């Protein structure tokens, strides 16, 4: 028996509701994964690689497929369901795009220990191995003030853990899964060096290099 307009409308609204639920599910899974990792309840590998880059991403693709089907079926009652179905589809496509972009970015393997002085790098407690350099990371050819070093660390999101006349050190815990870094600024006559060390061993899309260059930007002399 053919469905009447009211029944079709109710069915269409149920499809839209399911689409919205699926759209919300993927970011919600990611947020839960972040909380679980930051509170030490699951490992970084499980929270990021499994829950976020696998489960949540699959959920996002499922939401996109369902939203597309819902939008096509809403065309028969476009005045009531068409615009909301299109809006849900656009939002879902944006979420899928964000997941794909983040997966591609975080998959790029960048240096995890960066220093502007490779011959005599600033000491970082617990750092193992030899640091490397990255594009744009060069020593500042002047002796900066301790206050400027502290300000540069603060501006890059680091909390100060050590402050001396010729040395400043800070730590930074990123919100996303608590991927932390430690940074040291060493001040000498005629030269200031920076070292940034990641407190994890995984691809980070070059975040360590970006942080080193951000600190160095704050150490440059005023024009």
Describe, in short, the structure shown.
The chain is 52% helix and 15% strand. With 223 residues, the protein is an alpha+beta fold.
Describe it for me?
The chain has 223 residues and is of the alpha+beta class. It starts with a helix and ends with a helix. The radius of gyration is 24 Å and the shape is elongated. A hairpin with a 2-residue loop joins strand 2 (159-164) and strand 3. Helices cover 52% and strands 15% of the residues. The longest helix has 34 residues, at 5-38. The chain folds into two domains: 5-106; 113-219, TATA-Binding Protein (2-Layer Sandwich), CATH 3.30.310. The model has no long low-confidence stretch (mean pLDDT 83). The protein has helices spanning 5-38, 44-73, 78-106, 146-155, 207-219, and strands spanning 113-115, 159-164, 167-173, 180-188, 191-198. The protein has a five-stranded antiparallel sheet, with helices on one face.
Low-confidence stretches: none
Shape: elongated
Distance between the termini: 79 Å
**Total helical segments:** 5
**Average pLDDT for all residues:** 83
Structural class: alpha+beta
Kindly estimate the percentage of residues that lie in beta strands according to DSSP.
5-15%
- What's the CATH architecture name of the largest domain? 2-Layer Sandwich
- Oligomeric organization of the protein chains: single chain
Q: How many distinct beta strands?
A: 5
The CATH class of the largest domain is Alpha Beta
Largest sheet: 5 strands, antiparallel
Question: Which strand order does the major sheet show?
Answer: 1-5-4-3-2
Amount of helix:
40-55%
Number of domains: 2
Rg value: 24 Å
- CATH-defined fold name of the largest domain: TATA-Binding Protein
Secondary-structure element pattern, one letter each: HHHEHEEEEH
């Amino acid at each position: 028996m053919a469905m009447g307009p009211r029944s079709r409308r109710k069915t269409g609204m149920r499809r839209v509701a399911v689409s919205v639920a699926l759209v919300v599910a993927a970011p919600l899974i990611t947020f839960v994964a972040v909380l679980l990792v930051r509170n030490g309840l699951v490992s970084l590998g499980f929270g990021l690689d499994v829950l976020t880059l696998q489960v949540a991403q699959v959920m996002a693709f499922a939401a996109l497929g369902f939203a597309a089907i819902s939008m096509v079926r809403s065309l028969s009652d476009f005045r009531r369901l068409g615009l909301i179905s299109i809006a849900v589809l656009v939002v879902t496509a944006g979420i899928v795009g964000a997941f794909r972009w983040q997966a591609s970015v975080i998959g790029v393997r960048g240096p995890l220990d960066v220093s502007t002085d490779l011959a005599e790098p600033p000491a970082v407690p617990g750092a193992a191995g030899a640091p490397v350099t990255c594009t744009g990371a060069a020593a500042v050819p002047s002796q900066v003030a301790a206050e400027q070093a502290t300000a540069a660390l603060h501006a890059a999101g680091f909390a100060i853990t050590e402050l001396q006349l010729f040395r400043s050190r800070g730590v930074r815990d990123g919100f996303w899964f608590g991927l932390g870094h430690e940074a040291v600024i060493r001040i000498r006559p005629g030269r200031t060096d920076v070292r940034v060390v990641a407190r994890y061993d995984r691809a980070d899309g070059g975040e360590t290099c970006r942080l080193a260059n951000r600190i160095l930007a704050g150490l440059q002399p005023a024009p």
